[in-house]
Structures
1.
Amino acid sequence: MWRCSRPVPVALRRLSGRSAELRAWRWGSTTACERALQYRVGEKMHGYTVSQVTPVPELFLTAVKLDHDGTGARHLHLAREDSNNLFSVQFRTTPMDSTGVPHILEHTVLCGSQKYPCRDPFFKMLNRSLSTFMNAFTASDYTMYPFSTQNPKDFQNLLSVYLDAAFFPCLRELDFWQEGWRLEHEDPTDPKTALVFKGVVFNEMKGAFADSERVFSQHLQNQLLPDHTYAAVSGGAPLCIPDLTWEQLREFHAKHYHPSNARFLTYGNFPLEEHLRQIHEEALSKFQRIEPNTAVPPQQRWEMPREHHVHCAPDALAAGSPRQTTVSVSFLLPDSLTGPRAANWSQIYLGQKREGSFSNILIGCHSGSFASHALPSRAGAWCERDRGVGLSARCAMDFLITDARSTHPRIFI
Ligand SMILES: [Zn+2]
């Protein structure tokens, strides 16, 4: 939630309309926060327009929000007197199947780009850079590429590699076969051996779904939000990954990795204007605005509770493998991000994070009304181990989960 902007200082108002003087005054300031406070709503620089300037004294930072005029890309800069500067670009990636296209794309864009067509420029930077963090993540409905560094030149270099990777990747067919999936002989030197599926993401997801808790939480989200992208496995279900083609991967990139579908974040004490100039010149100025239509519509509510059972192999390392049944009662919550109750849910989240109070109210004691109604009648006596409750904010629609792992195999029969 954005705070109200601070009134413009008197001295700044006097400088209104004189941009050269304003810029000189800005860089005469000593701290990143002070410089950021001198941006004005409506001010234009390097293809962007400032839309909001907000001091956040509790966190010792000033937030500057900007829109890119040509593409609609949005940028949030958090100016703070911290030398560990951060950049991140995020795209809303909303797959409608479980082929793992956003996950395979996340891997493949890092395999070479137009300006850096060498093998894996991202990984080559790991031992050439002074970065304090480099990575990429695929979530249920977004993909992000963050890095951080304390060196201004290193920041420029990494920004160049990241921008080119995200917006101008080579996406070669061989990279797709390597990172996604392929058929290969068990012994690649012997064509008489059996054909097997291989691929970096294919193998990664086989490993992920060997974890019963991962299987459980994935099915829970898919079943509770079945109408749109949250019904899919964004990382890729091993049985579905071989349905993906190289052409589909390229189409997904063209639609989702576009500035009109992107959010940029920068943080630290390096100059914002230099970040904006580089992002505009090296990437955004080469695109026209589109309507990506990647938003996720609200989940339709249903009238009656629904049940879903999922089977998986027991955890061989856990004691008492026949007693690993897990039950969950989950509820889709009101729209916390855009709905009228946003403020209330925000307070609940803060309360939960601060004291665990929300969880305690619900199931913290045996006589708690929520626990006695939500869990099966006999569960209280048997579910002393691994009982939990939590709010999931992994996607745009939040849900409340209570779960319990049975210590008795017949409890849920
Ligand atoms: Zn991966």
2.
Amino acid sequence: MVTAASPSVGPTGRPIRSFPAPASLKGHGPARIIALCNQKGGVGKTTTTINLGASLAESGRRVLAIDFDPQGALSAGLGVQTHDVTTIYDLLLGTVKDAASTIVHTSIAGLDVIPANIDLSAAEVHLVNEVAREQILARVLRQVTGEYDVILIDCQPSLGLLTVNALTAAHGVLIPLECEYFALRGVALLVETIDKVRDRLNPAITLDGILATMYDGRTLHAREVLERVVDTFGDDVLETVISRTVKFPDASVAGAPIITFAPEHQAAEAYRQLARELIFRGAVA
Ligand SMILES: Nc1ncnc2c1ncn2[C@@H]1O[C@H](COP(=O)(O)OP(=O)(O)OP(=O)(O)O)[C@@H](O)[C@H]1O
Ligand SMILES: [Mg+2]
């Protein structure tokens, strides 16, 4: 494959380095909670949740993925059924009290999911008059943090009440950013929302990183966009970059992470590298 960068410099303009293989953990929990968030649609939130989750599980972390999008793409992408099951919606509304009872094991050892389905689209309307409506997810997740090392929340493409719930529950935010021109526009608004949540609801929330996705190093356009992203956000931009490849849609159709669907593919290796980088940065145990 043709890449523009010289061999020693990565697409983000920084030297390529390999992050150390993660040490194995002696015990598990309490989980650090990471919200994968970008109000722009189709930027790789769900794909990143699935494959980062699978990569972390592969390195011995206990991972819980929360499907927080009524489309249920995370559940489907992990091969988990969403009809006639209890979902995150039931937990938010309190019709099911025991969060552990909604957890589904996936085919990946160490990767569990709480599913969602179209019911979740009614949540914002139902919760709007609740007391402490922004803290409902945080309260639900408190029940299960002890069992996991990391909880990943796959947000829907909006900055509404559900996303604010995710940001209020989270210790950190990971922003997947598609390498195309208009992608940059929404990020200022997203960062503003994170700042507001930090001010009013969750003082400790940190930006864990901006992840460039769907990068095509053969196009000048993608290289220029990535350069601007690094100029604007500096070290918040993760060194790991996810390239554009048709293997991702293929894996989605198969209902499996690329980590197991095509374990040797460079995209699988990129997500393993992302897991190592986040562990190296201290975003994950
Ligand atoms: N690196 C990639 N290369 C090529 N296709 C990709 C890549 N990452 C994701 N895709 C594909 O792009 C589409 C959108 O990805 P994904 O569902 O992860 O985005 P999303 O941000 O979760 O979208 P939404 O905002 O709708 O929830 C999917 O069909 C997915 O398979
Ligand atoms: Mg999604």
